[in-house]
Input
Amino acid sequence: MADIGFDGRVAIVTGAGGGLGREHALLLASRGARVVVNDVGGSVSGEGGDAGPAQRVVDEINAAGGEAVPDTNSVATPDGGAAIVANALEHFGQVDIVVNNAGILRDKSFQNMSPDMLEAVLDVHLKGAFYVSRPAWVHMRERSYGRIVNTSSNSGILGNFGQSNYGAAKMGLVGLTRVLAVEGAKHNIKVNAIAPVALTRMTEEILGSMGEKIKPGLVSPVVAYLAHEDCPVTGEVYSAAGGRIARFFVGLTPGYYNPSLTVEDVRDHFAEIRAEDGYIVPASNSDEISLLLKQLR
Ligand code: NAI
Output
């Protein structure tokens, strides 16, 4: 089979001045995509700004014979998102791929988590993906083509101490991914998510000991495949770490049915309700509703 290529495609990669985003941008560009390298160039906690990181990645891409433009707008506002997409349209005339990767951390135990720490994290991760994807979506629908890859995290999907803001944002991205997959289906817009693990400045304190084994560049092939025309799936979430790729999914147990359910029934049948044998993986909420209708009949 032929190698995976992106000739003629235009990609926006947010937060691409370093870490995972930089690797995604370099890989897509090396395979022929023209890339908008977006990054505000702030700290891990989202303070400050610097045009240097985005420009350096653009220089790297151009030096390797690729094509890229820098973008320093923040994803965290509707205007910023619109400006990023406008930049792509102005320079390259189209947007085929959006990789929502920009991110910050403001960790604290829930006891000490303040509303502004929640807002800042939701703004960049969850609303940021919304703000960039929506103007791109309008354009993608017109052209009946699009690929969006969102960046979730096992901190949200599975839970992690001190990350109630981040976990909420990251699981919110799974919901966004699934709804956009449903809405994009008839427009040839596919939307998937990754939950990466990689050594970057964001994770060096906790993952430092795993070193080279979890290089961020080992996550990018997953992003590139999900961003490719041949991507066979939509609305799915892939764990990507150190060269291992696996699928996260939401399963529904067969459960227990009783048309005159009481609270004691719930207590007495709890093991059956939880039992995983025979679970299904609904593709959308209509799968669950059809199952329910069958039982109710
Ligand atoms: P990183 O800190 O190297 O990269 C994040 C980039 O986003 C930075 O370059 C930063 O300047 C940029 N950014 C922050 N706020 C922005 C904004 N408002 N607008 C535009 N750019 C902005 O960290 P890393 O690890 O590369 O993170 C990339 C993504 O992967 C994040 O969404 C992160 O939450 C996610 N992730 C990373 C994991 C890991 O193991 N490294 C684990 C799970 C998720």
Q: What stands out?
A: The beta strands are 10-13, 34-38, 67-71, 97-100, 146-151, 189-197, 237-241, 244-248. The chain has two domains: 10-248, 263-296. The CA atoms of residues 6 and 112 lie 46 Å apart. The longest strand covers residues 189-197.
